[in-house]
Specification:
CTDL_fold, COFA1 protein, Collagenase_NC10/endostatin, single chain, 8 strands, mainly beta, C-type_lectin-like/link_sf, Mannose-Binding Protein A, Chain A
Length: about 170
């Protein structure tokens, strides 16, 4: 399953699932992509189909392995990954080095186990209000689920996950 970033950073007010779907289509990818975010309807840990959570590796756009499988992201270690394996945007840029994302931080709105944090997910990703808070992770920590809280007015990286495998 591919883990890919949206082509631009977003504040806490985003239509992330739609953006993931649209940018994947524009990039010529045929599978379904969902935002790597907890929402008011779903915990991040359950975004990928149950049948695909254990046996498929999580890879970047070029097929390099980021995680052994979906479940390994939520084992309590904060989604530890190798920072030397790049994460790419739908248009092929390395988000760790490209200046389009000056802050190397990803929104996620979750606990380290992928459960939604209702107090820290920018009102279900519907507000960029400076006074509201969202859970995010600085990528330099090597963790996708580091537990840091930021104002929803910040423009951070939004990741998308291919949520079902199509051969």
């Amino acid at each position: 399953l591919h883990l890919v970033a949206l082509n631009l950073p977003f504040s806490g007010d985003m239509r992330a699932d739609f953006q993931c779907f649209q940018q994947a289509q524009l990039a010529g990818l045929t599978s379904t992509y969902r935002a790597f975010l907890s929402s008011h309807l779903q915990d991040l840990a359950t975004v990928v189909r149950k049948t695909d959570r254990y046996h498929l590796p999580i890879v970047n756009l070029k097929g390099e392995t980021l995680f052994n499988n979906w479940e390994s992201i939520f084992n309590g270690n904060g989604g530890q990954f190798n920072i030397h394996v790049p994460i790419y945007s739908f248009d092929g840029r390395n988000i760790m080095t490209d200046p389009t994302w000056p802050q190397k931080i990803i929104w996620h709105g979750s606990t380290a186990n992928g459960i939604r944090l209702v107090s820290s997910y920018c009102e279900a990703w519907h507000t960029a209000d400076m006074g509201e808070l969202g859970q995010a992770s600085p990528l330099k920590t090597g963790k996708l689920l580091d537990q840091k809280v930021y104002s929803c007015s910040n423009q951070f990286i939004v990741l998308c996950i291919e949520n079902s495998f199509v051969s």
